[in-house]
Amino acid sequence: EYKKVLMQHPGESFGAHLPEEITPEFVREEVASGRAIIPANINHPELEPMIIGRNFLVKINGNLGNSAVTSSITEEVEKMVWGIRWGSDTIMDLSTGKNIHETREWILRNSPVPIGTVPIYQALEKVGGIAEDLTWEIFKDTLIEQAEQGVDYFTIHAGVRLKYVPMTAKRMTGIVSRGGSIMAKWCLAHHEESFLYTHFEEICEIMKAYDVSFSLGDGLRPGSLADANDEAQFGELETLGELTKIAWQHDVQVMIEGPGHVPMQMIKENMDKELEECYEAPFYTLGPLTTDIAPGYDHITSGIGAAQIGWYGCAMLCYVTPKEHLGLPNKEDVRIGIITYKISAHAADLAKGHPGAQIRDNAMSKARFEFRWEDQFRLALDPERAREYHDETMPKDAHKVAHFCSMCGPKFCSMKISQDVREYAAENGFGTIDIALDEGMKQKAEEFKKSGSEIYSKA
Asked: Structural domain tally of the chain?
C-alpha cells in the first residue's frame, strides 16, 4: 500500500535537472548560475524565502491592486491574505489608483511571500498620468521609495526600445502591456531611447543595494493570437537577454517575463528562445492564453497554455482570472485564478516527472477508492469548494462515510462494484483478483461447452 502511494510515472523534463533531493548546495549552485532566483528584499523581514527556477517546482503569482475606478486598501489586503491561503507563491501589487504607497505598505507588512511591483505605474501617477512628463529622476526616486519599503522584485520594461516600437504598428492589437505602452509613448514623444534602457546600470545599483530582483518586463508581448511570436516580441526578448548579462555583472538576480496570447503549437518556441537568448534565466509568463474567444473564461484559456509552458520549463506562471479583459477581479475571481493556476503548475510538475509530485495524486486516488470523503477534502487544492459541492446533495455527517455519491448512487458506483469484486475474491479464497478472473473464465468455458459450444443460440 505504501509503495502504491509513492509510485510515479516517468516524465519528460525537456532538459531540466530535477534531483531526488534538494540540498543547500544545489540551491546555491542554481542561484549562482542565474537559473534560479530567491527574491528577498532586505527590508521585508516578514518574508519566508522561496525559490523560482525551472529545476524546482513550478510557482504561481497572483496579481492584485486597486485602479482609479474601484477598490480600497482593505479589499486589496484581503485579496492578498486569501490569495496566499489559496496557494499563491508570490503576489504582485499592480495598483494604479489612489493611495498607491499606503496600499503597498499594508500589503508588504502583512505578506510572508515575495511582493512584486511595476514602479512605472506609481511614477506615472506622480506626473498626473502624462507619460511624456516622466523623467529618469522621478522614476529613480520611485524605485528607491519602493525598495525602502521592502518590495522583493520589480518589473522593469527596459526592453521596450525606440527601434522596436514601429514594429508594432501593423499588429492586430498593438502594445497591450501597460508598462510597455507607457514607455513606447515616452520614446515616441521625445524620440529618444527609453531611460529605463539608458540608465539600466544605475537601476542595477539601486536594486543591488536592497537585494531586489529583476522581473524584466515583456512590454511588447502579443495581446492576440494574430500577433504571437512576431519580430517586436522576439526583438525585445533579445534585448532582455543583453540586459540579463548586465544585471548579473552587478550581482542582481533576474527572471524574464513572457507572453501573452500564443496558440498551443507556438508555445514551445517561446520557451526555447527564452532559454537560449536569456541564458536560462527563469521564465515567468502570463498564461499564455491559447484562444481569444472566451472572455469570462480566460482563466481556462490561459490555464491550458500555462500547463504547457510550465511543462516545457517555465519557472513561474502569472495567474489570469475570469475577469481578464473585462474588469478588476474581486476576491472570488482571485480564488478561481489561483486554483486554476495551481492546477496548471501541478500538471506541469507531473509531466516533468518532478520527484514526489505524484504522491498527493496517489493519496487522493486511494482516499477516493476507499470512500474516505474527509481525506479527499483535505487533499484537494481547494478543500472548501470540494466540501461545498459534496454538501449540496449529501450534507449529513452520515454521508461523509457513504460508499457512493449523488452521481451514481449506491447501485451504480464503479468503485463500489470494484470493491465488491475484491471482497468476493477474498471470501472465495482466490487470493488475488487475477486468480478470481481466471477461475471465472474457466467456469464460463465449462458452461459454454456444456451448452453445445454454439456461438449463437438457436431461435
From this structure: 2
Confidence at residue 452, expressed as pLDDT on a 0 to 100 scale: 77
Count Cα neighbours of 248 within 13 Å in the Cβ-side half-sphere. Answer: 19
Q: Mapping DSSP to helix (H, G, I), strand (E, B) and coil, where does residue 433 land?
A: helix
Collapsing DSSP to helix, strand or coil, 318 comes out as strand
> Is 361 part of a structural domain of the chain?
no
Which positions of the chain have pLDDT values less than 70? 1, 430-433, 436-437, 444, 455-459
Q: What is the pLDDT of residue 456?
A: 65
Task: Please state whether 211 falls in left (phi above 0), alpha (psi between -120 and 50) or beta.
Answer: left
d(CA 299, CA 399) in angstroms, rounded, equals 33
Element (H, E) at 62: strand 59-64
> CB of 357 within 8 A of CB of 350?
yes
pLDDT value at residue 459: 53
pTM of the model: 0.90
Q: Considering the domain boundaries, does residue 382 fall inside one?
A: no
Asked if 302 and 433 sit in the same domain, the reply is no
Residue 162 in 3-state DSSP? Answer: helix
Cα–Cα distance measured from residue 244 to residue 248, given in angstroms and rounded to the nearest whole number: 6
**Which residue do the cell numbers 506622480 mark?**
126
Residue 371 lies in a domain: no
Residues 329 and 321 sit within 8 Å (Cβ to Cβ): yes
Alpha-carbon distance of 156 to 203, in angstroms, equals: 9
